[in-house]
Amino acid sequence: MTDFFADFIDAVKTVPLIRYALFAGIVSSLTFGVVGSLVVVRQIGYVASAIAHSILGGIGASVYYNRVYDLPWLTPMLGAIAAGLLSVILIGWVTLRFKEREDTIIGAIWAAGMAAGLLFLHYAPGKAVNLESFIFGNILLTSKSDVIMTLVLGVIVLGLVALFYHKLVAVSFDEEFAQLRGVSTKVYYFLLLGLTAMSVVLMVRIAGLFLSQALLILPAATASRFSRSLWAIMLVAVGLTALSNTAGLALSYHYDIPTGPFIVFLAVGFYVLSFLLRRGRA
Amino acid sequence: MNPPDSPAATHPAHLVECRDLSFAYGKSRVLEDVSFVVHRGESLCVIGPNGGGKSTLAKLVLGLLEPASGSLKVMGRSPAEARTAIGYVPQAMRFDPQFPISALDIVLMGRLNHLRVGHYSKSCREMALAALAEVGLSGYEKRSFSDLSGGERQRVLIARALACEPEILLLDEPTANIDLSVEAALIETLVSLRHRMTILMITHDLDLVSSIGDSVLCVNHRVHRHSLPLSGETIKEIYSSRRRLEHDRRTRHQQGDHSTCQHD
User: Which chain B positions have a beta carbon within 8 Å of A163's beta carbon?
Assistant: First the structure.
């Protein structure tokens, strides 16, 4: 056991790859834990999934236009952010305007985003793109600038949530009443969707498109089984995400297992454990 | 901001004034030619069959829906402008019972219009604690919503409405889905509020109507006002479908107009 820790600490010290992955995992848990808690109490997990999947469209488009028009600044990350914001606007508008068909339309946006992404990647000239790293993520590809960007986003998210905490709670608990007290509930809904999209974009690096929403939702869902206030859920969720990321990285390094899926597996493990430790509450 | 209120605006003759109002969801007409007023200080109970338009009327008064025709004024202004003057109490069963929120945080929502960013001020917190005390829930501030009984949840929502410092308290079936034993305490709470503010209450509960109401507004697509106490005969008429037609005919005859009161 001591060997295991010594090995990992040694790797963190000597291998920049592992070091950045560790930092990214810890720093990103701030965003995931906080935003994930909001998504869980508002019960919009499927909206987060739709945003995550439609991001592939932006990644595909950025790769395609980058190569066809030789635009070096157009990185997959930028494409993902643009696609994330576009799907926030579309999904936000749809959920506010067409409540009765909401899930069908969100499903359509989800599928359309992925289909567009696959088409763009297919027709992009040059070397075939390694889809796997987008779909399953690879925390070991994290660079220093990724860590800094993650940190900046984390600070922005924490700042916004601290400023508007009570309004976000009120809108999540009783949107109609919040509106009657003069709160522009639509603004806060879009704020929440926007925060979700930005978190998911960052998470794609770590857990990939398919598994990212599991990492957004599971730690918060686990935390909500033990905590009675939203800020406590956020705190516990941040801790659980950081623990999953760090332990997942260390174990996958030691046993040579793919990192992203293993991190998600740990998050699922904590969730299952929460049922064994505390029955009854959903 | 609003201009300085004229005396007529601060003390309009009627808190709610509704004239020839109609409303439809798509093609199905819910309310037709509805006219009524709510006087300052009165307790008006809104009764009528399910689907008759009671909740729609409440949403119109709150400014959540727009009338298709006719006019509706709350305190001399449009409902949307006047909505912060109304303390709204929805049904407690509507909420996610597992939502992680304390009783105090729910009551503080009544002060949302005084919050810009960050935390509620000390005076807001004091007001919320006083509102909890008023509904008999002192010491419950840290209790989680999920740990409260149905009656306690409903009282927390009443406290939230009181924290709004409302001119009008608007309640939507406050005794629905509540045990009879708890209902007595809830009625007591409402009775104590009765003389302090104007109460507009949707209910099916005749006990509640007789304990609190000054008048009854019967809503079934059209509206008709009855004064209280309701005679046994009138109650039978309202709740007996056999006598419905007879009652309608007599009402129309007395009123000399077309306002009918169709009871199921």
Answer: 117-118
